[in-house]
Amino acid sequence: MKKIIIIALAVFSLGILTANADNNRIITVSQLPKKAQQFISQHFDGAKTTYVKEEREFIENSFEVMFANGTKVEFTGKGEWKEVDCRRSSVPTPVIPAAIMKYVKDNYPDVKVLLIERDRNDYELKLSNRLELTFDSKFNIIDIDD
Question: What average pLDDT score do residues 17-35 get?
Answer without folding.
Answer: 81
